[in-house]
Design brief:
alpha+beta; 2 domains; binds 2-acetamido-2-deoxy-beta-D-glucopyranose
Length: 372
Amino acid sequence: MRILDITVALSSLALFAAAAPAPFGKNQLPDGMPSPSPDQVKLIEQAAHGTLPNGPPPPVISSEGIVNLKLIAFNELFEVAFFNELITNITNKVEGYDIDEEEDHVKVLDALKAILAVCIKNVHIQISHSLTVLVFQQEELHALRANDALEHFKVNKIQPCEYTFPISDFKSAIALAATFTDVVLGTLQDVVERFALGRDVDLAREIASVIGQEGEQQGWFRASQGKIPSELPFLTTSDLNFAFTAIQDFVVPGSCPNINEIPLRTFEGLKILSTPGPQDQNITVQFNDPDHEADHSLWLTYINQQNLPIVEPLRFVSRNGKEVQAEALFPFEENEMNGLTIAAVTKSSGPFTDASSVAQWTLAGPGLIIVN
Ligand SMILES: *[C@@H]1O[C@H](CO)[C@@H](O)[C@H](O)[C@H]1NC(C)=O
Ligand SMILES: *[C@@H]1O[C@H](CO)[C@@H](O)[C@H](O)[C@H]1NC(C)=O
């Protein structure tokens, strides 16, 4: 992009920078979320570059369809909290989110180079800031749409929780956003299938439009990490229960007013201790095993792309209280395991036909691996 183009882009984006939200207290989201006034909705729509669908939700919905809407609302509220906090950190130049710190590193360059470098970096962070605001406003509309639909079907709206994020710099924030967006992109496939099984035709179409939006967002997260924007020819799939468990990693325990109204399973946590690269290797994982399931055979099952799940025997390494460490092969080469892989410790060796059959036999998961 030429500097002139960037300036033009920036001035049209300056509008959003001005809408930067302030920090909020416990369980509190900006813009009146999760129940904004009609005026607040108008402002969110303007900033999001578009509107909520203005047709009514369909007259009937399947019971699985309701579970879909609850999971979507639960996820989108978490995303709204995340992006709100990220914008707040950039706006307030919190350490790790402050471009000015980086200026010191370029002082050694000659004057012209330095000015150019700072200029480009500032442009980068300002675009990042403005685009983050845009992403955040669009996520607010997703959350609203799911909760409005629940209300329409006379089901309680999902309330936000208190959240905590394991990051303290801009780069890690974007890497985390890319990871949870990958899980969302896989999970929305499951949402569409469940809507299809329940004959919730109109809702399936609307989710397809959201999948595209999340994919566009993901292209930007990936590009700003220096990766190619489109991750795989067929994105990795997931299951609602894996997303439900993964989001709870960022939730302060006991802070969700009505998480108990979401009828999904929460698995034991699974950590990938050695991040694998693009080759065959053994990886070490750690999981909670309060019931001593590791006294019997367990497997590490991988979900990648649209392929049949890959099952590898898990070798016990050590136990410390209820925490178990174990090792298994990550068979990259035979399976071309690029992009997101969802790992799960399973109590069966399968063979599994799909992600939901893996979830049925899961003890601990999801462990999230992204190669390339
Ligand atoms: C914002 O910054 C604080 C302080 O470093 C950090 O604890 C928090 O995780 C950051 N949040 C995001 C979303 O980057
Ligand atoms: C993984 O560990 C097993 C058992 O120790 C070993 O036989 C195998 O060669 C290892 N594989 C790789 C790719 O390192």
